[in-house]
Amino acid sequence: MRPEPDWLVDEPYTDVDLGVLKSGKEAQINIIERTGHDGRTALVARKRYLPRQVTAKGALEAMGVQQASSFRNDVEYREGRQFRKSRDRRAVERMSAYGKRLLQDRWTGHEHQVMARLWAAGLAVPYPIAYAEDVFDLEYVGDHDGAAPQLHGARLDGPGLANAFDQVVDGLRIVVGEGLAHGDLSAYNLLWWDDRVWFIDFPQAVDLAANPQGLNYLHADVTNVCRWFRRRGLDVDPEEVFADLLVHL
Length: 249
What we know:
CATH class of the largest domain: Alpha Beta
Distance between the termini: 20 Å
Number of domains: 2
Strand content: 15-25%
Structural class: alpha+beta
Radius of gyration: 19 Å
Number of strands: 11
Helix content: 25-40%
Low-confidence stretches: 53-73, 75-81, 98-103
CATH topology of the largest domain: Phosphorylase Kinase, domain 1
Mean pLDDT: 82
């Protein structure tokens, strides 16, 4: 297991918000400069899951986000993740305000848990620092000049493309070895930094054993990434990769 950067977690530390890095449909990411009690500094990516139903004027600005999110239909992703209390289950089924709050919290905690598990297993994922309510702090991949590019935007030649593909497959073996599927994998949630592929965005990750659709999500992940590499001239077979991954279950 890799040593954890405890100083990023242990208080006291000072955070300075450097501004918005990215704002998508489900979350906004801000860059935070964290200074530890011993003077060490590092950049942190603060992922704030967007509020679901905000109607009051100025409410978004007060929360520090730029847009709201419509609540996604995530029933299939949530199969295998059960709420113990019957009141909670009913609230989620009815999609009441309380039920939506439960789902928001569940997705945040789920992503942190999955990334911590995969980081410990050796996958190249940003270190998951901490989460609370709708905020998730994780390691920033990049430097002060800019964030790591998505694989989609990375400029890779033939050998570099083949190297990236091999890293993606190796990474998927780790994910599957942990009994998981990413659930939404593409060249847009893979990063390329220091000749290394980084896996990001795991709120929708599914348990391959508990979720009846788990293998379908895994197959879709493989098909998506292989399609991207094939479009760039790399001869890869998604069915061959999928069969190889099943061996690692």
